[in-house]
Structure formats: C-alpha cells, structure tokens
Amino acid sequence: MKLSRGHHAFSSFVAGLSIVAGLLLASGAAVAGPNADGVLIVSYHDVITYSDGDPESVCQLIEEFDPLLDCGGAVTNVLTDPPGRAVLWAVYAAFPLQSSPRLAGVTVGVDYDNSTVFLVPGAWESCGDFVLHDNDWPGPNTGAAITWNAARTEHLVRVLVFAGYEYYGQDTSFDLIPHPNGGGFFADDDVPSNLDEIADYGRLGFNGDPGYLPCPVDDPLGACCLPDCSCVVTTRDECSSQGEWMGPDTACDPNQCPCPEQGACCFDDGTCSLRSEPSCIDAGGTYLGQFTDCDPNPCEVVPVFDSSWGRIKGTYR
Fold first, then answer.
1. What gap in Å lies between CA 189 and CA 185, rounded to an integer?
2. CATH at 157
3. Strand 185-187 versus strand 142-152 pairing type
4. Does residue 211 fall inside a structural domain?
5. pLDDT, tens only, 238-262
6. Of residues 174, 179, 172, 171, the one with CA closest to residue 163
7. Which of 130, 178, 296, 301 could join 16 in a cystine, given CB atoms 3.0 to 4.6 angstroms apart?
8. What is the residue range of the signal peptide feature (predicted)?
9. Whether pLDDT at 52 is above 70
10. Are residues 255 and 269 in the same domain?
11. Residue 298 burial (CB count, 10 A)
12. What is the pTM of this model?
C-alpha cells in the first residue's frame, strides 16, 4: 500500500488545497447542503488478505474484489485469529438514499489505543485525489483532509484504507472521530464550498467489541420553524415549502425557532394565535401587544342578542 500524495497536476493540487483550507477553517455549517445527514462508517474487508506485496491502489483492489454495496453490509468486527494477523479495513462516507450528494472533500480523525491496536507502518491509503494530514497521522487522535478533483455523487464513497492488527486478543476498537483541529465536515464542489457537519462516526471493533455502524436514516425528522413562529417536527422535504428546517433529531420542546417577540393575535371569529406583530397584521388579525397570551383567550366574542328596553325591564320585574 502506498500513500496517496504527489500524483496530481498543480491545478488539482491548488483546488484540493483550497477545499482543505475551507474544511479546516470551518466554524460550522449554517445551511444544509447536498451532503447533509451524511455519516462516516468503517468496514472490515475479509475477502482480501493483506501482504507487503499489495498493489499500489488498494482502494481499487477493494472495488474489484470486495466492494461494499450498501451501508448495511459493512462488517464492523474483527476476531483476532491468529493474533497479530494484519487485516484491511476501509472508511466510507455514506449518505441517505433520497439525498443527492456532491462530495468534494472531507475532514476526519482517528483514535485508538496504540498499545493494543497496531497499524502497519505506511500501510494506509487515501482514496481521494489529494490529502493533507497531521504530522503523526495516522496515530491516535490525529486527522486528515481528503479531496476529490471531481465531486463524488454516489451514496457510498470510499475515503481511506488501513492495514493493521490487534495482537493480544483484547476487546478494543479503532474509532472514527471529528478532525481534532478542524472538526468533521463534508464539502461540496461549490465555490466557496458548502460545508455539512458529519452526522455520526463509525467504529471498528476487535474481538468482543462489536463496533458501531451508524447508517444514515432516510427522511430523518427534525424541528421545522413556521412563519408564525410555531414549530412542528417533520422531514426536511416537507418543511422546505413552509418553513426552516433546524436539522435531524432536533425537537420542538422547547421551541427553538428564532422568532421575533410574540403576542396574542385576535381574529374576527374569536380565535387567538401567538404571532409576531407583522404576522398578525398580515393574517388580518388584531395584535394585542408583546408578551400577551392566548390562555385564557382574550379574543372571545361577547354574544349580542336582539331585544328591546321593554323586554329588559320585564326581565327584572
């Protein structure tokens, strides 16, 4: 296995470096991009046996002889038999099936106990076109940024390959984590890139550790903030036509919608709704002021009956 570096034209190098810079300087993703809800997983490839004589591109070797077809097929556990036997595992970016990913870059970190898990020196490979990594990579708690010259649009994209082993028969793991210096993000091919925070990270377990496989959830639910400042839990697609989606697994209790000050808004039929003043006026209501409430209802219509003064006097005689 050989390192993936130094095989690029200068223009590709500059493009990759600009994406890496954006990834490592990211402070957070403000609006969901095409790679939203994507995760990083790890899978053991038991069909291929590691040896020092492996071909230059192990990424391509896996594609030809042991391809991972879907996230659910990933193998997250390795039994040490015999101890010290080197095996191959790969890191993948996985996206919901209903999404349309455009993956141009990713930042990722790795962590493990290097007294029990041993990586074969130099036996790792980037499956991208450009990689920039920490000096101690791929040591524990280090990170790398990987980019592609052309955006990858598959729902499962191979990112990295490692060779290593567990020697003592212990229950331990190789964990994917956010990049220790820049966090974990997916970048698309826009200029500047849209950054989506990686939703979850997988783990390869050895022996009694089963590992962890966080396959992306299709149509995840999250809080949707409506124009009247109310909040409903729904999917991104359902929310897009009526409000602002706050992200997967966000909740409406407490209401986290960023809305202006609200108050009671009364309508002609006696109903009451909590709204901002502009929203109330636009809806044809009467705004009662900030911090007024609809419980009890201040908008109830007082019933009016047809009568005469004589009838009223007769009632009290």
1. 13
2. 2.60.40.680
3. unpaired
4. no
5. 887 788 888 877 888 888 787 767 7
6. 174
7. 130
8. 1-32
9. no
10. no
11. 13
12. 0.67
- Look up residue 121 and give its amino acid: P
Single out the residue of 70, 34, 30, 4 nearest to residue 151, CA to CA: 34
> Do residues 189 and 94 both lie within one domain?
yes
Q: What is the mean pLDDT of the chain?
A: 84
Name the percent of the chain lying above pLDDT 90: 49
Structural domain includes residue 139: yes
The answer to whether the CB of 213 falls within 8 A of the CB of 74 is yes
The DSSP code sequence of the chain is -----S-S-HHHHHHHHHHHHHHHT----SS--TTTT-EEEEEEE-SSPP-TT--S-HHHHHHHHS---SGGG---EE--SSTT--EEEEEEEE--TTS---EEEEEEEEEE-TTTEEEEEEEEEESSSEEEE-TTTTSTTEEEEEEEEEEE-SSEEEEEEEEEEE-S---EEEEEE--TTT--EEE-SSSSPPEEE---B-EEEETT---B--PPPSS-EEEEE-TTS-EEEEEHHHHHTTSEE--TT--SSS--------EEEE-TTS-EEEE-HHHHHHTT-EEEEET--SSS-TTPPPP-----HHHHHHHT-
Count how many residues are written for the chain.
317
- Cis-peptide into 260, omega within 30 deg: no
**Cβ partners under 8 Å of residue 97, min gap 6:** 155, 218
Range 273-287 average pLDDT: 87
Q: How many domains does the chain have?
A: 3
| Phi, psi angle pair for 15, to nearest 5° | -60, -45
| Pair (158, 28) in one structural domain | yes
Q: Read off the pLDDT of residues 100-142 as tens digits, 9 standing for 90 and up.
A: 999 999 999 999 999 999 999 888 999 999 999 999 999 999 9
In this structure, the number of other CB atoms found within 10 A of the CB of residue 7 comes to 11
